[in-house]
Design a protein that fits this description.
Helices cover about 60% and strands about 10% of the residues. It binds adenosine-5'-diphosphate and magnesium ion.
Length: about 475
């Protein structure tokens, strides 16, 4: 669960608890206020009745004296009139009033608390706030002419009023709670935004896209150091990557230069010395005046010379692709594939070189050659393929050189693989030529390596400096 959601839930539960507590409190307050109201209504009614009781007694006496009627009946009649008038008073409205009949039966219909709902208020609220049903009985008048009046508080109206008040109070609280909730989740959402930005930036960093990984300054003061330091870290990493690239490029250049130097030394020094030795040996072998044993030894020396010369030639072609300088990339690749076929007769290897391939600068030619060479080595080592297609072509329209090496072997997952030194070297060479590489491969579906190298502009081509042995000293 996300921290944001957790905080939101926590806050929402606290608010809900608060609302529940407030609800309980509101109902409690409503009950008190209804009870108070009922109390005061009853008290007022009793006071009014007490004030009027003198009048009641008088009515009875007057009636008896006039012999008009039975005093008690007259009293009762007057009492009924009084009650009717009282019932119309505002504050007495909340009290049911009745004369208790002679048989003493309850004058009121029994009130069931569960059905005694106030108009507009729900039953549960009525039950919760209704006061205990009580009945008061009060006797008035002199002995013999006593009337008994019963009164019972009727809280229905009061409850309805309390319900309305409670609802509006509670609604106000709910509105505040909702507002607080919205503000909080809004604030939290904003507070967590930087995290999402950091995660995105880290993802880009992982892909090596340093420029896109940079963080905009965070507006929050507390987070500002994170963006600043993060960007500084990226700068440091970019610098280091650049240094690494330069170093690797230099290492490759040194390697090529050294190989070229060795090849030339082998050719110039060793090759010539061997030729000289062989010439002498051949001369001795042909010399009729030499001893037979000497002629035999000379023949052996000539054979050894041939062998050493073969070794030197092979070493030379391994160190320095033959004909690269003189006949160019196409011819060198033909030779490479020819040697390859000799060693891997079971693999059907096809090489197609664009006839319109221009003469490449030596640096570019040797890098392209090394790329094809490493791809072939990989096929031999890892692919278990039966077919290889090598295409070297140019796109005159875009001025690009295309190398495509496809095999039908095991394949591999280029994204899951850690680059080995071979592929790393390929990438390095391509990067130094501002080219690009695409490795399309799936386990079991073969591998197709496509390399695109921009061809240098014509004037550049002419002045491109060859990798000379002299570079060894300057690097
Ligand atoms: N043509 C290919 N077919 C199958 N797997 C390959 C091929 N080329 C490269 N690989 C895989 O990629 C890995 C890295 O290759 P590379 O960088 O040349 O290192 P190395 O050849 O020294 O192992 C290899 O170990 C191999 O698993
Ligand atoms: Mg390899």
């Amino acid at each position: 669960v996300s921290l944001g959601l957790r905080l939101n839930l926590l806050f929402a539960s606290v608010l809900t608890l608060l609302l529940i507590a407030a609800g309980v409190l509101i109902v409690d307050r409503a009950r008190d206020s209804v009870a108070d109201e009922m109390d005061s209504a009853v008290r007022l009614t009793l006071q009014l009745l007490a004030a009027a009781s003198g009048g009641l007694a008088e009515t009875g006496q007057t009636a008896e004296r006039d012999g008009l009627a039975d005093g008690a009946a007259a009293t009762a009649g007057t009492a009924a009139g009084l009650l009717a008038r009282l019932a119309r008073l505002r504050n007495v409205r909340h009290v049911d009033l009745a004369l208790v009949p002679a048989d003493g039966r309850l004058p009121f219909a029994p009130r069931d608390p569960s059905t005694a709902t106030a108009p507009g208020a729900p039953a549960w609220f009525s039950r919760a706030v209704a006061p205990e049903p009580i009945e008061y009985r009060q006797r008035y008048g002199p002995p013999g002419r006593v009337v008994e009046i019963a009164l019972r508080p009727n809280p229905a109206d009061e409850i309805a009023e309390a319900w309305e008040e409670s609802v509006s109070t509670f609604a106000l609280l709910v509105a505040f709670a909702a507002l607080a909730m919205i503000l909080t989740s809004f604030t939290l959402h904003h507070a967590f935004k930087p995290i999402a930005r950091i995660v995105t930036a880290l993802g880009r960093l992982e892909q090596g896209d340093f420029a896109a990984a940079r963080l905009r300054d965070f507006s929050l003061l507390e987070l500002r150091p994170i963006s600043t330091r993060f960007n500084r870290m990226i700068d440091a990493m970019a610098l280091q990557r650049e240094e690494n690239r330069t170093l690797r490029g230099q290492a490759l250049a040194i390697q090529e230069a050294e190989r070229g130097h060795l090849a030339r030394e082998l050719h110039d020094e060793l090759g010539q010395s061997i030729s000289a030795i062989k010439a002498l040996a051949v001369a001795t072998r042909r010399n009729a005046r030499a001893l037979e044993s000497s002629r035999r030894n000379a023949g052996t020396i000539a054979e050894v010379c041939d062998h050493v010369y073969d070794v030197v030639r092979r070493l030379m072609s391994e160190l320095r692709p033959p004909m690269l300088d003189t006949l160019g990339l196409g011819a060198s690749l033909e030779k490479l594939v020819e040697d390859w076929r000799r060693r891997h007769g079971d693999i059907d290897t096809r090489l197609t070189v664009d006839a319109a391939l221009p003469t490449l600068p030596e640096d570019m030619a040797i890098k392209a050659y090394r790329i094809v060479q490493e791809c072939l080595t990989n096929v031999a080592r890892h692919a278990a393929a039966t077919r290889i297609e090598i295409d070297v072509s140019t796109e005159p329209a875009t001025g690009r050189l295309l190398l495509r090496i496809a095999d039908n072997g095991n394949g591999f997952d280029p994204t899951a693989h850690r680059l080995g030194l071979g592929l790393l070297g390929i990438r390095e060479r391509i990067a130094s030529l501002d080219g690009s590489i695409d490795i399309a491969s799936h386990p079991g579906a073969g591998t197709c390596v496509t390399v695109v190298l921009p061809l240098p502009a014509d004037d550049e081509q002419a002045t491109a400096p060859p990798v000379a042995p002299a570079d060894l000293e300057t690097v």
